[in-house]
Design brief:
about 425 residues; alpha/beta; six-stranded parallel β-sheet; six-stranded mixed β-sheet; 16 helices; about 20% strand
Length: about 425
C-alpha cells in the first residue's frame, strides 16, 4: 500500500497495531516494522522477512522492495513512504498529540539519565509514569518511547540527548513537552558542537521551545549558564531546596527538615535529587513520598553505582565521560575515605581539538590525589602522561586492560571506574 492521504492513514494502522519494532530479529505478532537505514544496514532488505516472522505491516521507503513484493502478494502489507525515519517521528508526534497529557523533557550534559529516573521515581509515588528506558534519547529512541504511551499513563518523562547543533530542537518538536529540565551544560561532544557555547545553544533549544509555547522550565538557580539563558520563561527554581550532608560513599542531604540517605554515589547527584524533588512538589507529590522515592532509588545503569565484589569495592560511573563529569567524579573520589584507592579511567571521546588539553588536565588532577595506581585506557592518554608518576599505566584498549587484569588480579582496593562508553570499561567489571 502507498502511504498517502488517499490510501492509508498510518496512525490508523498504528492504532490497530500499537507495537513498534525496528529490529527484524524481534518481530512480535501484529507489530509494525519500520525499515530504518543505518551506515551499514538497510532495513528495507528485511521488511518482507519481518512480516513473515509475525509483523502485521512493514513501513519501507525503497520502491524496489515494494515492486518486488507484488509477485508474492506481500506488497499489500508494505507501507511505502518517502522516508521511514521521518514517518516514525511524525507518527510519534501524532500519537503524542492524541494522548494529550503532560510530558517533561530532560536534557543536559551530565546527569540527565539519573535525573530522568529520579523524576520518574518521585512522580511514580502518585502517578502512572512512562519514562525513557536506558538512554534511548536520540532521534530514534525518543519516537519509540512516545509510541509506548497508552491511556493508562498519567505523565511522561522523556530524555533527550544531542551531540550536534539542532538535535534538541528536532526532539522537542517531536515530543512537544509542557515542562523541561536542562540538568547542566559542560564540555562534551565538542567535536560536534565546536565549543562550550555550542553546547549551551543546543541544550538551550529546550528552553526556546518552552518559551515559544508558554511552557515551564525547572532551573537550577546555582547554575550561571542556565540562569543566563532562561529569561522570558516560566521558571521554577531549585538548588537551594536542600543541603548537602555527606557522601560516604552514598549521598546524604537534608530536604524540608528530613534527612535523605540515597543509594547514589557522589555529591554531584545532589542537584539531580533536588530537581526531582522540585518536580514532585509541583505535581502534588507529598514531601514524605519524595523523600521515600529518593531514598529507595537504586541505580542499575552503570552510573553512580557502588558494587562490592568478593575482592574489591567498585565505584562505577562508566557509561560516559567528559571533562565536566570526570572532574566531578575525581573530586568525589578524592574526598572518599577508603583504603587502597585506585582509578581505572577510559579516554574522553568526541572532544575534537580540546582533547589533548582536557586529558592533560585530568592527569594533573590525578597527580595531586592520594591514590595508589591509575590505569588509563585509550590512545588519547599517550601524549599527556609523559613524565607523569610511575603510578600511571597505559593500555591501548579494553582488550589490553582485560589481559593485564586476568594475569594480575586486583584485590583489596576501592576502584573508581569511569570512561566514555566507547572505551567499553564495563567489560572489565567482572575481572575486578
Amino acid at each position: 500500500m502507498r502511504d498517502n492521504t488517499h490510501t492509508m492513514d498510518l496512525y490508523k494502522v498504528f492504532s490497530e497495531h500499537p507495537v513498534i519494532t525496528t529490529d527484524s530479529r524481534n518481530c512480535p505478532e501484529g507489530a509494525l516494522f519500520f525499515a530504518l537505514r543505518g551506515e551499514s544496514f538497510d532495513g528495507n532488505e528485511y521488511a518482507v522477512s519481518a512480516i513473515e516472522k509475525g509483523c502485521a505491516y512493514a513501513v519501507i521507503d525503497d520502491v524496489r522492495v515494494f515492486e518486488g513484493a507484488k509477485a508474492t502478494g506481500m506488497a499489500r502489507r508494505l507501507i511505502l513512504v518517502p522516508d521511514v525515519l521521518t514517518s516514525l517521528q511524525d507518527l510519534a508526534r501524532t500519537h503524542r498529540r492524541h494522548w494529550g497529557k503532560t510530558i517533561i523533557g530532560v536534557t543536559g550534559t551530565n546527569g540527565k539519565t539519573t535525573t530522568k529516573e529520579l523524576i520518574a521515581a518521585v512522580l511514580g509515588k502518585k502517578y502512572d509514569v512512562l519514562f525513557t528506558q536506558g538512554n534511548f534519547n536520540n532521534h530514534i529512541g525518543v519516537p519509540k518511547t512516545l509510541l509506548q504511551l497508552s491511556g493508562s499513563h498519567d505523565i511522561a518523562v522523556v530524555e533527550m540527548g544531542a551531540n550536534h547543533p539542532g538535535e534538541i530542537k528536532t526532539l522537542v518538536n517531536i515530543t512537544e513537552p509542557e515542562y523541561g529540565v536542562i540538568t547542566n551544560v559542560g564540555k562534551a561532544h565538542l567535536l560536534g558542537f565546536g565549543s562550550l557555547e555550542g553546547v549551551i545553544r543546543t541544550k538551550g533549544e529546550l528552553y526556546d521551545y518552552l518559551r515559544e509555547h508558554h511552557g515551564t522550565a525547572f532551573v537550577n538557580e546555582n547554575d550561571e549558564h542556565l540562569m543566563n539563558i532562561c529569561h522570558g520563561l516560566n521558571v521554577i527554581k531549585y538548588g537551594d531546596n536542600g543541603r548537602f550532608i555527606a557522601s560516604d560513599p552514598f549521598l546524604a542531604f537534608s530536604y524540608e527538615g528530613q534527612q535523605v540517605r540515597t543509594r547514589l554515589i557522589g555529591g554531584y547527584n545532589l542537584d539531580n535529587c533536588l530537581c526531582a524533588a522540585a518536580i514532585g512538589r509541583q505535581f502534588g507529590v507529598s514531601d514524605e513520598d519524595i523523600v521515600a522515592a529518593l531514598s529507595e532509588y537504586t541505580p542499575t545503569n552503570n552510573r553512580s553505582m557502588l558494587r562490592k565484589t568478593e575482592r574489591n569495592d567498585l565505584i562505577i560511573d562508566a557509561y560516559n565521560a567528559n571533562p565536566t563529569s570526570m572532574a566531578a567524579a575525581l573530586s568525589n573520589f578524592r574526598q572518599l575515605k577508603a583504603k587502597g584507592k585506585m582509578c581505572i579511567l577510559g579516554a574522553m571521546r568526541e572532544l575534537g581539538e580540546a582533547s589533548e588539553e582536557e586529558h592533560r588536565k585530568v592527569i594533573a588532577t590525578l597527580e595531586d590525589m592520594d591514590i595508589e595506581d591509575v590505569m588509563l585506557v585509550g590512545e588519547e592518554w599517550d601524549e599527556v602522561v609523559t613524565g607523569a608518576s610511575a603510578r600511571f599505566s597505559l593500555f591501548k584498549d579494553i582488550n589490553a586492560l582485560s589481559e593485564y587484569l586476568t594475569e594480575n588480579p586486583l584485590c583489596g582496593h576501592t576502584i573508581l571506574v569511569k570512561g566514555s562508553n566507547s572505551t567499553r570499561l564495563i567489560q572489565s567489571i567482572e575481572l575486578l
